């Protein structure tokens, strides 16, 4: 990008990278803010707000922009449980719509690619620094302008937390454009690894493949949980429609409500993963939704809540098989990767093959299970939160219990998948030979 280009062919002075980063970031911030304004304007056009003043709507849009970036909002509420007349209180809104968080992430991904194309390897930090300073200032200004007596916003949170999804998107986008981390940061990892010992390279390959297998297991578990969520919504579709009809929000109001629910769709998939793991999730303080039964109190009239399985479930325990199946897939994948150097090392040290095969397979199951459990706990921490009102201050799975359940189930599946892998490979080879013979 240049500051000036005229008809003489003189392209002028190159734009400083920090300035280009700031302009790219300002563009991304404005676009994401406009997208947050659109549904609010649509509801306002149908007289859906009691306070239709322009400044109130602008503050609401800014608060929504901060929420999708993960900034907690302190809500001033009236607690009816404190007395008949109610007493003032406050609640923290931390339930982030992860689906809408993808908007600033993707905009940052685009900006990161553009900045990587405009920078040399040792200059990219200038563009990134300029962009992050501008985005941090935008967040701080939004928090300062949009705070009210009813919604308290910590300025430091508004300044720093939006940088997390934005900076992550920029780094991933820049890495995608550069093609490798060595081109991005100027460090050749391959050359560094080549200078290490052979044992270190084998250990690194083993641990790296185990980490990838853990990611494969978690991805497969999420996919299976998403399919189960879709089936559950299909089965309870009549109840979901009944809630829409009871709300009678109109076409625009119904569309805005649907967009909000779609924004929380990734959260719901993580909730479904917690359900199939057996750990379950909470829909309010003291509630529990799991495959062995559901016990919740009164819930808000949100259509998707009508699809929550209720009462005792005679065959709910069957859902626990899904993470195990994902672990079987991960164990087979690891076998095909061919990086079980721990098993090779044991075979060299100990002659008893039955012992070395058992120990190495169990160690692999434990290692992959731990990786999947840690990733699942991280997802649970991101997806859970508080709605800031009444009992709904605890929504979502418990990260510790979800991580433990996923680790155990995936570990069992990995052991089965790795042990059965040779038979699966042999069967696949036989099928290929039979196909060629035809």
UniProtKB/TrEMBL annotation:
Keywords: Membrane, Transmembrane, Transmembrane helix. InterPro entries: DUF6350. This is Integral membrane protein. The chain crosses the membrane at residues 25-45, 57-78, 90-112, 124-145, 151-174, 241-260, 267-286, 315-335, 355-382, 402-420. It comes from Pseudarthrobacter sulfonivorans. Pfam families: DUF6350. The keyword Cytoplasm does not apply.
């Amino acid at each position: 990008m240049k500051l000036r280009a005229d008809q003489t062919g003189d392209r002028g002075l190159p734009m400083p990278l920090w300035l280009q980063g700031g302009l790219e970031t300002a563009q991304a911030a404005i676009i994401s803010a406009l997208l947050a304004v659109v549904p609010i304007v649509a509801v306002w056009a149908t007289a859906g707000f009691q306070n239709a003043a322009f400044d109130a709507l602008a503050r609401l849009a800014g608060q929504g922009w901060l929420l999708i970036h993960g900034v907690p909002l302190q809500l001033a509420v009236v607690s009816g449980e404190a007395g008949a007349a109610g007493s003032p209180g406050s609640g923290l809104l931390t339930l982030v719509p992860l689906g809408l968080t993808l908007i600033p992430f993707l905009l940052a991904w685009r900006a990161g690619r553009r900045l990587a194309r405009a920078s040399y390897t040792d200059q990219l930090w200038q563009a990134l620094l300029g962009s992050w300073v501008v985005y941090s200032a935008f967040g701080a200004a939004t928090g300062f302008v949009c705070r009210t007596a009813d919604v308290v916003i910590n300025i430091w949170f508004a300044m720093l937390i939006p940088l997390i999804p934005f900076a992550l998107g920029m780094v991933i986008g820049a890495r995608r454009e550069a093609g490798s981390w060595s081109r991005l940061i100027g460090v050749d990892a391959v050359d560094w690894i080549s200078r290490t010992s052979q044992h270190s390279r084998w250990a690194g390959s083993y641990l790296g493949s185990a980490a990838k297998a853990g990611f494969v297991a978690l991805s497969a578990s999420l996919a299976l949980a998403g399919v189960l969520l879709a089936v559950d919504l299909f089965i309870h579709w009549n109840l979901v429609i009944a809630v829409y009809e009871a709300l009678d929000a109109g076409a625009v109001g119904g569309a805005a409500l649907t967009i909000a629910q779609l924004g929380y769709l990734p959260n719901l998939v993580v909730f479904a993963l917690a359900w199939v793991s057996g750990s379950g999730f909470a829909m309010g303080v003291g509630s529990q939704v799991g495959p062995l039964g559901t016990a919740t109190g009164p819930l808000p009239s949100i259509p998707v809540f009508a699809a929550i399985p209720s009462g005792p479930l005679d065959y709910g325990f069957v859902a626990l098989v899904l993470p195990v199946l994902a672990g079987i897939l991960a164990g087979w994948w690891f076998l095909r990767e061919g990086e079980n150097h721990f098993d090779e090392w044991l075979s060299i040290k100990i002659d008893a093959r039955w012992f070395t095969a058992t120990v190495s397979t169990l160690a692999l199951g434990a290692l992959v299970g731990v990786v999947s459990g840690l990733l699942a706990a991280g997802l649970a921490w991101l997806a859970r939160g508080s709605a800031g009102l009444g009992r709904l201050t605890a929504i979502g799975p418990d990260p510790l219990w979800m991580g433990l359940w996923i680790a155990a189930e995936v570990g069992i599946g990995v052991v089965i998948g790795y042990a059965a892998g040779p038979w699966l490979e042999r069967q696949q080879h036989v099928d290929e030979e039979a196909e060629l013979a035809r």
